[in-house]
Amino acid sequence: MLKRVFSLIIGFSLLTGCASVPLTTLFIFSHTDREVLEQANAEQLRAKITYKGGIKLESDVVLLTLSYRLKEHGSNALLKFPLQLVSHKHKDPKQGWIIPTPEKNIYTFKLNSENQKVFLKTKQDILKDGLEVVNFNVDINLGKGHVSKRDDESYRVSIDLKLNQNEEYFTLVRNADVIVE
Fold first, then answer.
1. Can you give the pLDDT at residue 17?
2. Considering 4, 25, 35, 37, which has the largest number of Cβ atoms within 10 A of its Cβ?
């Protein structure tokens, strides 16, 4: 009986320790790099950025970064694709029973038509040349003049990526602290 209770406590501890990594992200990364790149549809690819706090983002500061390595060459390559704003939703703060919900700004971005063509061509070339490793990332420039902020507030960001309309968003970053100078 004591072994069973101890096993349950250890199992529960392991499960809750991994809870900060969303299951969708674990599922995406369980596929091979080639499968992940094949799923990416340039027209349907979306990046969703959620800021908790009163930060407002300019639309020209977000880039999709595609880094990869080919089997033959062994060298890493890095491509950056500017993203364009599709939508912006603002949610006012709400007073909860115990913890208030902070103000949120939710931005959705996509590749513009020119970058969709470049992304598609790049994807085809990479798949043809023998992909070894691929990584997607979303870069945000929070330099001066690109954001509006309030001095007395802290900010958190979550970044999600959707490769095509048949898939759900998967999380790249969840509730990370943001430092704006």
1. 45
2. 37
Structure-token pair, residue 152: 């007395």
For residue 178, the model assigns a pLDDT of 76
The CA-based dihedral angle spanning residues 6, 8, 11, 16, taken in that order and rounded to the nearest 10 degrees: -110
Residues 6+ apart with CB under 8 A from 3: none
Residue 68 φ/ψ region, left for φ over 0, alpha for ψ in the -120 to 50 degree band, beta for the rest: beta
* Cα angle, residue 49 at apex, residues 44 and 55 outer, rounded to 5°: 150
DSSP 102: P
Let me know how many helices (H) and strands (E) the chain has, helices first: 4, 9
Structure tokens at 80: 């950056």
Say if CB 132 and CB 98 are below 8 A apart: no
**Whether pLDDT at 80 is above 70:** yes
Instruction: Kindly report the average pLDDT of the chain as a whole number.
Output: 75
Mean per-residue pLDDT for 91-119?
86
Degrees (nearest 5) of the Cα angle 84, 86, 90?
120
